[in-house]
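Sample pair:
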Amino acid sequence: MVLHDWPDEQCRQILSNLRSAMKPGYSRILLNEIVIPETNAGWFETSVDVLMMAVHGAREGREGEWRALVEGVEGLRVRGIWGVEEAVEKVVEVELVE
């Protein structure tokens, strides 16, 4: 739960710096973040989103926003977003595009 604290441009820079250390077919970046569903979002994750905006000038992201952020970095893509039913925190698995 680090990237949600940063604006998109800095997130892309962080991911880009990590990309340079990755090996194709081997390395993964695992992001543990709150992922807001595109539809039927619950009260908790939307409340945390408003709290992050009000207190920190940051935000939580919807699934599509996380994908766009990661895939906005050349050479990276989201392999999957994994979670447990009803949990707001999910693991965003990022891999290097070969």
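The chain has one domain: 3-96.
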